[in-house]
Amino acid sequence: MFTGLVEDVGTVARADRRSDALVLAIRPARIPVGELAIGESVCHDGACLTVTDVARDTFSVLAGKETLDRTTLGALRIGKKVNLERSLRVGDRLGGHWVTGHIDGTGELAARRDGGANLVLTVKTPAHLLRHIVEKGSIAIAGVSLTVNAVDAETFSVAIIPHTREMTTLGELAVGDRINLETDILAKHLEKLVAK
Fold first, then answer.
1. What integer is the mean pLDDT of 113-121?
2. CATH tag, 8-86
C-alpha cells in the first residue's frame, strides 16, 4: 500500500527485455539504496514492483507481462525518469490517499496549461476508468496522489502545485504522453458491491 506522495525521482540505469518481462535497474536520487531490501515493494510511476537486487547505487525490479500490458513501463529506456515511493509502514501518516500500486490503465495527456501558480493537466481517459473518477475525488497519475478538479465525457483535469511539479515527473509531461492511472479503490469496491 502507498500514499501517492512521491519520495524520489529515479533514473533508469538499465532496461533489459527477458522474454515477456522487463528487468529495470533504477538509480534513485534521494532514497538510500542501502536501505532497500530484496523483496521490498517500491512504486514506479504508480506500479508496485518487487526489489529483486540491490547494488552499489541501483536497485533492480522485474515488470512482468501483466504490468507491461497495463502500464507505460514497457516504454522505459535508459535515462528516463520515474517517480518512486516506498511502501507505507504501519504508523506512517497518510498524506495522500490509499494507492495500491495496481495500475488500472493508461490515459493520454490531452492538454497542459499554465493556471497561474498551478499547472493544469487534462487527461483523456478510457470510459471504463472514467466512470470511477469524480470531481474532488482522488486519482493517482504516474503514482502521484492528486485531487480531480473537473470531469467530462472523455477527460478529467488536475492542478499541479509548484512543489509537485518540482518533485515529480509530472511537470515534464508533454501533450500526447501516455501516463499510468490508478482510480480510487473505494469507487471500484463500491461499484462491485452495488452491482450485486
1. 92
2. 2.40.30.20
